[in-house]
Amino acid sequence: MKLSEKLVGKKQITKSCTAGRIHNSADRRISASAINGTGQFSIVAPWGIESIPKTETDAVVISGDSERMCIGVKQIYNYYGLKPGEIVIYSGMSTYIHLKEDGKIDIVGDVYVNGVRLGE
Question: Which of 10, 47, 62, 83 has the highest Cβ tally under 10 A?
């Protein structure tokens, strides 16, 4: 089954995939403008990962007859020097967790466990 069929069910729909620009984001939805106009889009992400994209970010959006979805944001630069197979989770540029291909984990920022800051 195609991913698009899983996302919208087996019903036939008219769909388009295009680039858009995020103007506003909150509560798991974004407002974005794309080639086919401006609208509200649901944010689609892997299970267990939540994020709200920053405004003025380029996004990939899908529009159908009954649903509009943001399926990703455009990443132009490799700020963290990622190698194939690596993942970085970040909030802005000053706080991040980098899971490295060699098995190391870099954590940058204040780390708390059960409300207690590590290193105190």
Answer: 62
